[in-house]
Amino acid sequence: MTDSILSKAATMEIPINSNGDSRTAEDDSLEQDLQQVMVSGPNLNETSIVSGGYGGAAEGIIPTSSIKAPSMHHSNSNPSMMSEEATRGVAVEKFDSVKKWSINTYKCTKQMFSERFGRGTKTVDLELEAQIDVLRETKMKYERILRLARELTNHFYNMVQTQQALGDTFADLSQKSPELQDEFGYNAETQRLLCKNGETLLGAINFFVSSINTLVNKTMEDTLMTIKMYENARLEFDAYRTDLEELSVGPRDAAAMMRFEIAQQQYQIQKDKYERLHSDVSIKLKFLEENKVKVMHKQLLLFHNAISAYFAGNQQQLEQTLRQFNVKLKPPGSDKPSWLEEQ
């Protein structure tokens, strides 16, 4: 069949060379070589490279199977394989991490919905939970004190600035109005004295605001962050505890026992984490309460004494109060109080 196809193909060819003459024997040999390749098909392992012309000597044929890659290719294969193995190791590690996170999230979400709909049990320390609720309520009240104290600072600062401007105006008019020089002078001196005492009181209020801000937004917030970690650990602990309880009443075959042992190990890890954070929260709540009483005792006494001395017009008592609590005033000539500059 192959010979008939080739013979038909040969009859369809028009043997004309570039000069219009019949083809030579060399062209016939080339056509036979091409037909042989088309019939047999290429074999990459046995393909040859011809170095001479078609139909040339056999010495010019070089089998490609005898050609080997240079040694440089082998020297670069080891680093490439090592890099590929390292990349594969990182991918496997990330996959395991995502897998563990997914399982843990599923367990915790299931436990959370079970507790919300009343189908699951929850580990509760009533005494600790009561202390946490008191802390959250106390923080809300202290935030209100802080907000009102800042408003008082802004209003009082504007009043002091107005008194200073009014005193400067009175002093200027006392120089330009000889007939009212004494009256303008008295009022200018009064406003300057009020402005000076107001700046002293403003320094005390700024110190009060700064201390309350530290207590609320740093000390209390740090304790609440630990409480949040504790609540997450409690949820994880109950999730793995529930999982362990379900496996304990299941079948006792080899696969089930292996799952039970793994669940027991995970439960112990979560239990240790929960107990550690439970202890941390208890300690922080205790120290927070002691620190809160100490700070507020000092700040409330400062606020009371400074306000009383200012409105009583007792300049010496006001300055003594600031020295007693080591409150430093802002530098003279400053346009804004220190708290507003910090904001």
Order of helices and strands: HHEEHHHHHH
Identify the overall geometry.
Answer: elongated
Strand content: under 5%
| Stretches with pLDDT under 50, minimum 5 residues | 1-23, 37-76, 339-343
Largest sheet, described in full?
A: 2 strands, antiparallel
In which order are the strands of the major sheet placed? Answer: 1-2
Mean pLDDT: 77
* Terminal-residue CA separation: 97 Å
Protein structure class: mainly alpha
Helix content: over 70%
Supply Rg: 46 Å
In total, how many beta strands?
Answer: 2
Q: Mind explaining what this structure looks like?
A:
By secondary structure, the chain is mainly alpha-helical. The protein has eight helices and two strands, in the order ααββαααααα. The protein has helices at 2-12, 25-40, 71-116, 126-176, 181-248, 254-311, 315-324, 338-342, and strands spanning 48-50, 61-63. α5 (181-248) runs parallel beside α7. The longest helix is centred in the middle third of the chain and has 68 residues, at 181-248.
